[in-house]
Design goal:
By secondary structure, this protein is of the alpha/beta class. It is about 35% helix and about 15% strand. The structure holds 2-keto-D-gluconic acid.
């Protein structure tokens, strides 16, 4: 009988996921969720046939060179900008991600940020917690309307569509910009516009683009200046899509009204100036963080690994191997 393939699980996962993997692999799993320095990751991965990684693990040429046996990388995320796909393809390494199972939860989070930002929920809560609520006033924490306004979506894939669908309940006009026209445009009641129109007309702009060199800083000083001064910006996609330094300046100068950010350039570190800006809602990359979504993501990554071990086609491949 052939030996079972060797798998490294780099981050703590639910016990049910370990149970699913255990019959198929010789397992090394970081169930204590230790913070491994890069050298530890490279050393632990060195003799592995397969890796189960998270978006915080950089799978680049350096790592691949350290893992001569590697044939499969499963990431517990839909985004895969942390994986050098070209390098994996060159080496015949299969790669899988976790689409669909987090779409609705992530779209919900876009709305949580949009509503909190427009209606200044966290800003007013901090003020209340600080004991500053002494009296009511007509002009206290005036925010922006959400209902009946124009929602702009940059990137109309699965999550963008789910964000758009929710806008119906708020009687919003939906415009979007995307590389191609969305096939479900009519169903969504959304209109494709050029980028300049999107920036100029959106009252609330949600970013749902995958990160790549091409989308690096697609929202920078120029784009922020082109938005309405009353607009809110929501980023649930990836840090680096927004130029965070330019955003700080725009918020400070009142060039836009507010921002809701779940992702940051260089996270978990973030531009400290963001912490001092009142009209920004900050969350620590929790877009997909519901119990059911995170379980489904981890299970889907495990399903891909089991398929690999059984020599079957991967359920959700991004590179064939
Ligand atoms: C993940 C995400 O939770 O799936 C993605 O691409 O950004 C989040 O849903 C995060 O990346 C952890 O892997």
């Amino acid at each position: 009988m052939n030996a079972r393939p060797r798998l490294l699980v780099t981050r703590q996962v639910f016990p049910q996921v370990i149970e699913r993997l255990a019959p198929y692999f010789e397992l090394d799993a970081n169930q204590d969720d230790e913070d491994w320095p890069r050298a530890t990751l490279l050393a632990r991965a060195a003799d592995r046939d397969a890796l189960f990684v998270a978006a915080s693990d950089r799978v680049d040429r350096e790592l691949l060179a350290a893992c001569p046996r590697l044939r499969m990388v499963a990431t517990g995320s839909v985004g895969y900008n942390h994986i050098d796909l070209a390098a994996c393809r060159e080496r015949g390494i299969a790669v899988s991600n976790t689409p669909d199972v987090l779409t609705e939860a992530t779209a919900d989070m876009a709305w949580a940020l949009l509503l909190s930002t427009a209606r200044r929920v966290t800003e007013s809560e901090h003020w209340l917690r600080a004991g500053q609520w002494q009296r009511w006033a007509f002009d206290q924490f005036l925010g922006a309307d959400v209902h009946g306004t124009t929602l702009g979506i940059l990137g109309m894939g699965r999550i963008g569509s789910a964000v758009a669908r929710r806008a119906r309940g708020f009687d919003m006009k939906v415009i979007y910009h995307n590389r191609s026209r969305a096939a479900n445009e009519a169903e969504l009641g959304a209109r494709l516009v050029d980028r300049a129109t999107l920036l100029a007309e959106a009252d609330h702009l949600v970013l749902v683009l995958p990160y790549s060199e091409a989308t690096h800083h697609v929202i920078g000083a120029r784009e922020l200046a082109a938005m309405k001064s009353t607009a809110t910006l929501v980023n649930i996609a990836r840090g680096g899509i927004v130029d965070d330094a330019a955003l700080v300046e725009a918020l400070r100068a009142g060039r836009i009204a507010g921002a809701g950010l779940d992702v940051f350039e260089g996270e978990p570190a973030l531009d400290p100036r963001l912490l001092a800006v009142p009209n920004v809602v900050l969350t620590p990359h929790i877009g997909s963080a519901t119990r059911s979504s995170r379980m489904a993501m981890a299970m889907l990554a495990a399903d891909n690994l089991v398929a690999f071990a059984a020599g079957q086609p991967l359920p959700t491949p991004v590179a064939a191997g």
